[in-house]
């Protein structure tokens, strides 16, 4: 399915022809945000190509818990039917030192969405709509007019380690379990078919040396070292699938700087702390918010600079509040550690959970899609 990388946006004109009378758009990165934007632009009749370094299907470091999406978001993107193939999730629990201290249900249902399946289905939908997908292609300098950066979390200081694996026999006690430890936490999310996704975010650079350890043994040692021993035990008995193991280090959370001419979406724009469960939905939101300004650019109604300004404003208005809340609470979680004051307040329901979800995942009052 891979093709020769086009040289800049001009190469796409060979596919659609001069009669289109539109400027094509290139998207660098074929993750959730890039694929969703490509689909949205093709639905608007815009010539668009995606350059992706990897191939589908592929495993990703992701919690695979798509929550907080606006009711009209998925329908407006034209991907609701793809998401409806995944199980709907409502229940969750929080635990520390293996002990549950909070149970609740989400104010809005979530999807247990496998990235291995979802990304491949989005790529197929994009091509069905006439989009150009170029796989196995790396772009050294993605910043130029007509190109959108959707390459995921930029690498930063080596402060965070993300590890993920799929378990074939986990039997989680809720649709989503969040386990909090020392300078890190992990989520166990049901993905249907009797399987669950275990994904951890760990702070620091001093981790157990892998050496002769297998990947699964390394993951288990990391969990033990961060006070997440109950998950380490689960990893041992939950039939982990070695081929699904993925790890990534040296990335940053929060707003990412961009160059003067860049339009960024998804994690390339801002990476929300994963405890919120909102990263996947936020990637899709950013794609839909960027679609109309980019379509206007392609039709000659906006310059690239004007389109960039419009996208920046829309993303800032929609996402700034939840990012501030998420980063502040993330620092609180890591500072307090297990048994901290936040968990004391939440466990005694002195902080309304629905209120917290609204701040961390957005709410329809921010402006509905559709």
Describe the structure.
This protein is α/β, with parallel strands linked by helices and 370 residues long. Helix content is 35%, strand content 23%. The chain has a domain at 9-59 and 116-153 and 256-366: FAD/NAD(P)-binding domain. The protein contains eleven helices and 14 strands. Strands 4-3-8-9-10-7-11 form a seven-stranded mixed beta sheet, sandwiched between helices. It has a five-stranded parallel beta sheet with strand order 5-2-1-6-13. Strands 12-14 form a two-stranded antiparallel ribbon. Helix 2 (32-43) runs parallel beside helix 5. Mean pLDDT is 87; it is low at 1-14.
Q: What is CATH's topology name of the domain at 9-59 and 116-153 and 256-366? A: FAD/NAD(P)-binding domain
Instruction: Let me know the largest β-sheet.
Output: 7 strands, mixed
Q: Report the C-alpha radius of gyration, rounded.
A: 20 Å
Order of helices and strands: HEHEHHEEHEEEEEEHHEEEEHHHH
Low-confidence runs of at least 5 consecutive residues: 1-14
CATH architecture title of the domain at 9-59 and 116-153 and 256-366: 3-Layer(bba) Sandwich
Tell how many strands the DSSP assignment holds. Answer: 14
Dominant shape: globular
Mean pLDDT: 87
CATH class descriptor of the domain at 9-59 and 116-153 and 256-366 = Alpha Beta
Q: Helical segment tally?
A: 11
Supply the helix-strand structural class. Answer: alpha/beta
The portion of residues assigned to helices is 25-40%
Query: How would you write the strand order of the largest sheet?
Result: 4-3-8-9-10-7-11
